[in-house]
Specification:
Elements (H helix, E strand, L loop, with lengths): L3 E10 L2 E7 L3 E5 L5 H13 L6 E8 L4 H35 L4 H8 L3 H8 L9 H4 L1
Parallel strand pairs: 1-4
Antiparallel strand pairs: 1-2, 2-3
Helix pairs in contact: 2-3, 3-4
Organism: Frondihabitans peucedani
Protein name: Antitoxin HicB
């Protein structure tokens, strides 16, 4: 079965999301952004008489006002926060290794670093940092 590719531009229009489907020039509406993919797929499948699973979509959301700029700004802040947390974890790891090498107990290392003993064990093993971001928890 051949895959059909379509570009879909999604923008807010009053109380709905307006879907403009190229190259067929189709227009559809979605009540919420999360259903844009399904609505576009159903519209195209009906229009072309094909199986919805044979459709490949490239969806571009056009946000109102300065939303796209603010989302980009937030992504930059998120990346800098991730980088800072990685650097913190590395510094804590270095401190933990130095304390461990000096014969300090895991419990005392935890008290010094402000970490629970299981996290001290993890950091001494070179394990990755947990709870990397709110985004990863979703």
């Amino acid at each position: 079965m051949a895959t059909l590719s379509y570009d879909v531009s999604v923008s807010r229009d009053g109380a709905v999301w307006l879907l403009e489907i190229a190259p067929i020039g189709g227009v559809a509406e979605a009540r919420w952004l999360g259903e844009a993919d399904d609505v576009a797929r159903a519209f195209i499948a009906d229009f072309e008489g094909v199986d919805p699973e044979s459709i490949e979509l490239a969806i571009t959301v056009i946000y109102p006002g300065d939303v796209a700029d603010e989302l980009e700004r937030a992504a930059g802040h998120r990346q800098r926060a991730e980088d800072a947390l990685d650097a913190e974890w590395e510094a804590l790891g270095n401190a933990a290794l130095a304390l461990d090498g000096a014969g300090v107990t895991r419990r005392d290392i935890g008290d010094i670093l402000g970490l629970a003993v299981p996290r001290v064990r993890r950091i001494l093993r070179g394990g990755p940092r947990e709870n990397q971001s709110r985004r990863d928890a979703q």
